[in-house]
Amino acid sequence: MSTARLVPEPAASLSIWSRLTDQAYGLRDRILANQRFQIMAARFPLTRGVSARRARACFDLCAGFVYSQVLFACVKLDLFELLARKPRTVAEIAQHAKLTDEATLRLLRAAASLDLLQARGKDQSGADRFGLGQTGAAMRANPGVKAMIEHHSMFYADMADPLALLRGEAGATKLSSYWPYAGGGDPASLAAGDVAPYTDLMATSQQFVATDVLDAYDVSRHRRLMDVGGGDGSFLRSAAARAPELALTLFDLPAVVETARPRFAAAGLAGRVSLVGGSFSHDPLPRGADLATLVRIAHDHGDDTVQALLAAIFAALEPGGTLLIAEPLAGDADSAPMADAYFGFYLLAMGKGRARKPAELMAMLIRAGFVEPRQIATPRPLLSGLIQARKPGI
């Protein structure tokens, strides 16, 4: 254990309000840490429920990794699909999973406790049966969830020693290899094989984000939409369905753009889309759009890169055009676990980028020349926040 002593901040450097607030929080912390108070709160009828929820929250923080691995096991065994057709006995599931009945029952009970599965009583022979739980059924509805859960095995490996990650002592991480543009070199030189895994992953996880963004902002009021870093074009195809007259421009790395080309053709949109390959770190953006979008792009990059990107979008947009930034936002109560905890460490393991507060993004937008930046409410801020800004007209 370190013997370093913390040097208290001089009282004179704090406002009276800050000192009073610190004192109030200090009193609260001492009360909550008092075992007699904890016992009393657990027994008193008016505080019993709050005490139980706090205790559960503390335990969930300790056991969260186990919960994640139970989910991972269910996904790897494809149990959600198996049980969606009908409930099955432990023996049937064991045969499918190639596990003993005892091991299978242990997994099923764990998954049922997390609402991934649900005990469905016994069959006529007295054998225990299990079906989908509500959470498992909801996960099955989104194919992107399965892909993300399987992807997280790399992230968990990188998080085996979080302090080594924070200190920069972890060495090369699995996520930095998975996202090749996070490393050095020219990202525009990446080949199709380098970009295919992450492009497909982003496409499968795009559905809910695209739906929430397009529900929050009507793209049909615009003439041409340019999606910068738009991957295989999933967001643009969703936007095209909402606005049949909207012209489309996709800008991404050349190898990524080539994966998008047949997907636009298959959707009957080849005549509506302009596909432009390049790196926004080095190449100018195509002009002519009156709406530009950055969907889960800004938080993947450092401040200097993002500031330069915003300036490039400003230059490319038509006068009076609009920019939308869609990604989890830091510092917000609704999205803090996603932005500050999850993405805080995910992006660290990836090697670059950070989640930002709305005020930070708005300040960067103003520095790039945009006006009237504002946050737009989205149906599920945990998945994505939304910032809008406008380029002044002529």
Coarse shape: globular
Strand order of the largest sheet: 6-5-4-7-8-10-9
Number of helices: 17
Q: How many whole angstroms does the radius of gyration measure?
A: 25 Å
Q: What's the helical proportion of residues?
A: 40-55%
Beta fraction: 5-15%
Order of helical and strand elements: HHHHEHHEEHHHHHHEHEHEEHEHHEE
CATH topology of the largest domain, what is it called? Answer: Rossmann fold
Task: Let me know the average pLDDT.
Answer: 87
Number of strands: 10
CATH C-level class of the largest domain: Alpha Beta
- Main structural class: alpha/beta
Which architecture name of the largest domain does CATH use?
A: 3-Layer(aba) Sandwich
Polypeptide structure, described:
The chain is globular, with a radius of gyration of 25 Å. It has helices at residues 16-32, 35-43, 45-76, 79-85, 90-97, 101-113, 134-140, 143-158, 162-166, 174-178, 192-204, 207-216, 234-242, 254-266, 303-316, 336-350, 358-368, and strands at residues 88-89, 117-122, 128-132, 224-228, 247-252, 273-277, 291-295, 322-327, 371-376, 385-390. It is built from 17 helices and 10 strands. The model has no long low-confidence stretch (mean pLDDT 87). A 7-stranded mixed sheet has the order 6-5-4-7-8-10-9, with helices on both faces. A 3-stranded antiparallel sheet has the order 1-3-2. The chain folds into 2 domains: 42-140, Orthogonal Bundle (Arc Repressor Mutant, subunit A); 158-390, Vaccinia Virus protein VP39 (Rossmann fold), CATH 3.40.50. Helix 8 (143-158) crosses helix 11 (192-204), helix 11 packs across helix 14 (254-266) and helix 12 (207-216) packs parallel to helix 13. Helix content is 52%, strand content 13%.
